[in-house]
From TrEMBL:
This is ATP-dependent DNA helicase RecG. It comes from Paludibaculum fermentans. The gene is recG. Coiled coil: none annotated. Gene3D superfamilies: Nucleic acid-binding proteins (2.40.50.140), P-loop containing nucleotide triphosphate hydrolases (3.40.50.300). The lineage of its organism: Bacteria, Pseudomonadati, Acidobacteriota, Terriglobia, Bryobacterales. The keyword Oxidoreductase does not apply. Pfam families: DEAD (PF00270), Helicase_C (PF00271), RecG_dom3_C (PF19833), RecG_wedge (PF17191). SMART domains: DEXDc, HELICc. GO terms for molecular function: 3'-5' DNA helicase activity; ATP binding; DNA binding; hydrolase activity. One of its GO terms (biological process) is DNA repair. Residues 288-449 form the Helicase ATP-binding domain.
Length: 699
């Protein structure tokens, strides 16, 4: 047997169990070794029957005295009672329900080991254990599993289909006992310096910790063996990321010049005085652009912090150097808005802008494509349509991706590939908690706008139940009568836009005719023809539409400073980061703005989530809470988000090990002790990256 042995060939597995295990992504012996127990039980407390105390968990070694199958008159519970004895005079009754098969197991005279909770049946005056874990003790049998399930610290695995923790324990034990000496891929100098056990020791300690291992450490995943396995998993991921970074650094990028003339042009487009943070961030971007290495930069800034103008400035640098810039946005509404804004700010420079959206006619698209391919247009703004194969650029020098979290890694890559090593700027308003930033965006440099433009008042957030809707509506009415505007957003269950559209349509009917007959109510959702969308959005921008009923299509980017009320219906169905984004649609002007979260009955976590939003307007804090309450997969939302799949490591629990692994991996890649070691690492990552983390090594 070796690590690559298919699981179905491991003794005791067979086709049915193999299918169960494959369902969990476990196909080889190696996979099973990294299937870490999620909990450990100390069953090493071995006691003679005479010393058992009711209430304690204990392991006993005893002999079957007799077996009974008591009959209950109403229904047959299949109850089995087995009386055990040892050399003390005390006896113990083990009870199992629905366990007729045990009649053939507990034959009188057989020696067993039992683990369970000791109880005292005062009525019968006997000690009992209900459904104790058991094993049959045999001295001669080769397949003896004695001392595996009892009498030690026992690993508890999550069952895979019908394959129980008990079966898994046996299978893992067999694999560990039969493995030849394994080569340890983790570089020895790192292992020694961090005092981590070698691979074989670590695997044994992970699955079958010795009796003297501290149970609290084990159950907190901090025994030396567990730390080593977690560290290793993170280490190879971070090594891969560092190698990617190093590779990217050697690519011949564009050296944009940043002379007086370019600086003048940048100043010309500024409609306002930039904040300190905007200036600093532009400085970081300009520095990247003026070096030969292609820029890979993530620009993070809370909603409304003013990322768009910074992106426009970067585009000016590219265009003034004779290159084109492309801006990719996740929705048509946002792309259209970017188009209007950029046309306005870039007007003094006379750039030609080509929009490219899915809803354009073939002819319109053809015109835009030609403009980009010939270099007639210097700026492209678009949605996914921009990524289509036949979209070509004359000289793409800067790719900007707005609301990056809505796109996958491959999409970023496909825009990038429309140029020759162009600079890449990705932007997001969903603050990415550090653990995730280190893993998914690990190959990007990060700039943060941590300051809002002056004069913004913090948004006031309230929680209301469905029963209080009347109040909410009269509040909207008062705001509108004071000249403001409002959004009312409807949620979908599980990403189904269709459902949300239905909810919004129904609400629109009622709101426009019954609730606010005197107001101009507009309806906006993703399924509207785009001319209609534009008309509604324009109406709202001009203030003609006073209340905008919508789905989350307005989630990102939309900028109407006169809107001061954001009502989110069924707020419990949204992610926190998403509501924070929605809330960012108001509070963009000088007036006090409000966000009202309307919910049904809430669960405990639900209440905690809403409270987080009511109490905080700090995007980073909210993102951390969201991550903690929902977990990384849900937090990122999309399958193609590029989040690696960890077997042992857990981003929420193991942040400090991740940080350590990253430090070590970076130093290792940048200053390897020898070229051979680095080569070996490169080979290891190439071979294991995809399988271990579900990631493609791109680029
Ligand atoms: P986001 O970072 O969410 O994309 P935007 O770029 O849309 O934010 O900017 C939000 C609003 O703030 C816009 O109306 C923009 O014109 C305005 N804005 C941005 N920077 C400044 C600034 N330095 N001073 C005044 N207003 C600004
Ligand atoms: Mg934006």
């Amino acid at each position: 047997m070796d690590l690559s042995t298919p699981i179905k060939f491991v003794k005791g597995v067979g086709p049915r169990r193999a299918a169960d295990l494959e369902g969990r992504g476990l196909t080889t012996a190696a996979d099973l070794l990294t299937y870490a127990p999620f909990r450990y039980e100390d069953r090493s407390n071995i006691k003679p029957l005479g010393q058992l105390a009711p209430g304690e968990m204990a392991t006993v070694l005893a002999e079957v005295h007799s077996l009974h199958a008591p009959q209950f008159h109403r229904r047959d519970l299949g109850m089995i009672e087995v009386i055990f004895q040892d050399s003390s005079s005390q006896r113990l009754t083990g009870k199992w329900f629905h366990a007729q098969y045990l009649k053939n197991v507990f034959l009188p005279g057989i020696r067993v080991s039992l683990f369970g909770k000791v109880e005292f049946d005062g009525y019968k005056g006997e000690l009992t254990m209900l459904h104790p874990d058991y094993e049959i003790l045999r001295d001669d049998d080769e397949e003896d599993e004695a001392g595996l399930h009892t009498g030690r610290i026992v690993p508890v695995y999550e069952a895979a289909g019908k394959t129980s923790t008990r079966v898994l324990r046996g299978v893992v034990k067999r694999i560990i006992d039969n493995l030849p000496e394994m080569p340890d891929a983790l570089p020895e100098f790192i292992r020694r310096r961090l005092a981590l056990p070698d691979l074989t020791t670590a695997l044994k300690g992970l699955h079958f910790p010795s009796v003297d291992t501290d149970l609290r450490l084990l159950n907190n995943f901090r025994s030396p063996a567990q730390i080593r396995m977690i560290f290793e998993e993170f280490f190879w991921l971070e090594t891969g990321i560092s190698l990617k970074r190093r590779q990217a650094r050697t690519e011949p990028g564009i050296r944009f010049e940043l002379n007086e003339r370019v600086r003048e042009q940048i100043k010309k487009i500024l409609p306002f005085k930039p904040t300190g943070a905007q200036k600093r961030v532009l400085g970081e971007i300009a520095r990247d652009m003026s070096t030969e290495t292609p820029m890979s930069r993530l620009l993070q800034g809370d909603v409304g912090s003013g990322k768009t103008i910074v992106a426009a400035q970067a585009a000016v640098i590219a265009v003034e150097n004779g290159y084109q810039a492309a801006l990719l946005a996740p929705t048509e509404i946002l792309a259209a808005q970017h188009q209007v804004n950029l046309e306005r700010v870039l007007a003094p420079l006379g750039y030609r802008i080509a929009p490219l959206m899915g809803s354009m006619t073939k002819k319109e698209k053809a015109v835009a494509k030609r403009a980009l391919a010939t270099g007639f247009a210097q700026i492209a703004i678009g949605t996914h349509a921009l990524l289509e194969e036949d979209v070509e650029f004359d000289k793409l020098g800067l790719a900007i991706i707005d609301e990056q979290h809505r796109f996958g890694v491959m999409q970023r890559k496909s825009l990038q590939q429309k140029g020759v090593y162009p600079d890449v700027l990705v932007m997001t308003a969903t603050p990415i908690p550090r653990t995730l930033a280190l893993t998914i965006y690990g190959d990007l440099d990060v700039s943060i706008i941590d300051e809002l433009p002056p004069g913004r008042q913090p948004i006031k957030t309230f929680h209301k139940t469905k029963l209080e809707l009347e109040q909410v509506y009269s509040f909207i009415l008062r705001q509108v009568q004071a000249g403001r505007q409002a959004y009312i957003v409807y949620a979908a269950i599980e990403e189904s836009e269709t459902q949300a559209v239905k909810a919004a349509q129904a609400a629109y009917q009622e709101l426009s005719t019954v609730v606010f007959p005197q107001l101009k109510v507009g309806l906006l959702h993703g399924k509207l023809p785009s001319a209609e969308k534009d008309a509604v959005m324009d109406g709202f921008k001009r203030g003609e539409v006073q209340v905008l009923v919508s789905t989350t299509v307005i989630e990102v980017g939309v900028d109407v400073p006169n809107a001061t009320v954001m009502v989110v219906e069924n707020a419990e169905r949204f992610g926190l980061a998403q509501i924070h984004q929605l809330r960012g649609r108001v509070g963009r002007g000088a007036d006090q703005s409000y966000c009202v979260l309307v919910t049904d009955k809430l669960s405990d976590t639900g209440r905690e989530r809403i409270r987080t939003l009511v109490e905080s307007t700090d995007g980073f804090h909210i993102a951390e809470m969201d991550l903690r309450l929902r977990g990384p997969g849900e937090f990122l939302g999309t399958k193609q988000s590029g989040l690696p799949v960890f077997r042992i490591g857990n981003l929420l629990r193991d942040q400090e090990i991740l940080e350590l692994a990253r430090e070590e991996a970076r130093t290792f890649v940048e200053q390897p002790p020898s070229e051979e070691l680095l080569e070996a690492a490169l080979r290891f990552v190439r071979e294991h990256w995809q399988r271990r983390y579900g990631l493609a090594l791109i680029g």
